Amino acid sequence: MRGMLADLLDLLLPRACARCAGAVHGTDVFCARCVTAIPRIAAGGCPLCQVAIASAQPCCAACAHDRLPLAQVAAEAPFAGEIARWVHAFKYPSEGLAGFDPRPAAALAALVADAARRLTGEPPVLVAPVPMHPRKRRERGFHPAGELARTVAAALGAPVERRALQQLRSTASQTGLDRHARRRNVRGAFEANARLRGVACVALVDDVVTTGATLTECARALRRAGVRRVVAVCAARTL
Ligand SMILES: [Zn+2]
Ligand SMILES: [Zn+2]
């Protein structure tokens, strides 16, 4: 419902930059000035956590040690400042008309599409949003990762598979938990669809990657189900 109203408002409102409300070209989300002003994560870092690495290294020492079930985690912007405010406005829209402001969703969609273009190697053939427990989804009224997955699918030219993963149990919020507590909190919480066996590459989608505990657990479930390669695409990450 919120998606439909946002789309409708989008049609009624004049096209303007989602960041400064200035004029934009065609269906662009940001004006030319804002596109370059938005903070972005530098290219060429560790393909999993994006810290700077020597060019000869395939990934950083910490990620090599962790032996993650993910081949790559692409994120576009540092989770801070205005990006963090967009994420919050997108995930927790305020009551009343302000909650229908389409700009935070448009801004994050633009970022996640740019993140998808950072993927290298074998292209994903399916796009899977990080699932949300049905109870939480009912409370929230929409599924933020599901919305972003549609954008990633369009950017990659691959379909969204909403039933790729399901959350088996409700987990406590990851907010405020340290790395180890986050891992424990989501361990065994997801199950992948058995029909994904043999799929060459799946792209997981989430709004923000923090420690990567949720993405790792989802990727583990997909790999257990027989998916050969899993990558992830996120609008932002904590650095
Ligand atoms: Zn602008
Ligand atoms: Zn790393």
Strand content: 5-15%
Q: How would a textbook summarize the main sheet? A: 4 strands, parallel
CATH class: Alpha Beta
Indicate the percent of residues in helices. Answer: 25-40%
Which sequence of SSEs, written as H and E, runs from N to C? HHHEHHEHHEHEEHE
Q: What overall geometry do the principal axes of the alpha carbons give? A: globular
N- to C-terminal separation?
34 Å
> Which small molecules are bound?
zinc ion
* Side-by-side strand order of the widest sheet: 1-6-5-2
Count the E strands.
Answer: 6
The helix tally amounts to: 9
Uncertain spans, ≥5 residues at pLDDT below 50? none
**Which architecture per CATH?**
3-Layer(aba) Sandwich
Q: Mean pLDDT score, rounded?
A: 91
Number of domains: 1
CATH topology: Rossmann fold
**Radius of gyration from the alpha-carbon trace, in angstroms:** 18 Å
Oligomeric form:
single chain
Please give the structural blueprint.
Blueprint: H1 2-12, H2 32-37, H3 61-66, E1 72-78, H4 81-91, H5 103-116, E2 126-129, H6 134-140, H7 144-156, E3 165-167, H8 179-186, E4 190-192, E5 202-209, H9 213-224, E6 230-237
Parallel strand pairs: 1-6, 2-5, 5-6
Antiparallel strand pairs: 3-4
The structure holds zinc ion (ZN) (2 copies).
One zinc ion is lined by residues 46, 48-49, 51, 59-60, 62-63.
